[in-house]
Write a structure and sequence with these properties.
It contains five helices and four strands. By secondary structure, the chain is α+β, with helices and mostly antiparallel strands. It folds into two domains: 33 residues; 111 residues, Alpha-Beta Plaits (2-Layer Sandwich), CATH 3.30.70. A four-stranded antiparallel β-sheet has the order 2-3-1-4. A hairpin with a 2-residue loop joins strand 2 and strand 3. Helix 1 packs across helix 2 and helix 3 packs antiparallel against helix 4. The radius of gyration is 17 Å and the shape is globular.
Length: 150
């Protein structure tokens, strides 16, 4: 994770503002800290991006249930939640395990009436794209519509 000073330099936002916002994000659970792991050393083969539209009229508990379901499918990289949808990315060790976990969680969410259509999932094999380190900041900035270079 970039330091507050580095974020300030890259974005032009003052360091105290970044510090305050980051603290609030951690306190509210919007951001979490997790250990950095070399996924290829533990045989990670797939990276999946997902977008889940959630049924109209949901509450925060419903959003949390969908979020937790996708955390159980694979090792989460990032998740962005907003009213009516969740999108993010996770890593998986292989396709058969990914498919069985995803199908199980989607059946559970459908039976609870939380989702009405199958989410969009894009699966990329890490070996084919020869990735050892990926900088997600530009992709996330583009998804969020942020105009500054990160």
């Amino acid at each position: 994770m970039l330091s507050d000073l580095e974020l300030s330099r890259r974005t032009g936002i003052s360091r105290p503002t970044i510090s305050g916002k980051r603290t609030k994000f951690f306190q509210s659970g919007l951001l979490t800290r997790e250990a950095y792991i070399d996924w290829q050393k533990i045989c990670c083969e797939l990276m999946s991006f997902y977008h889940v539209p959630i049924r109209h009229g949901h509450d925060r508990e419903d959003l949390a249930k969908v979020y937790q379901a996708f955390r159980r499918v694979g090792a989460p990289l990032f998740t962005y939640m907003q009213p009516g949808e969740i999108f993010g990315a996770f890593l998986s060790t292989g396709y058969p395990e990914l498919k069985s976990r995803l199908d199980q969680e989607l059946r559970n969410l459908s039976s609870q009436g939380l989702i009405t259509e199958r989410p969009m999932v894009v699966i990329m094999p890490l070996n084919e794209i020869k990735s050892t380190k990926i900088d997600y900041a530009p992709m996330v900035a583009d998804m969020l519509g942020i105009g500054r270079e990160i």
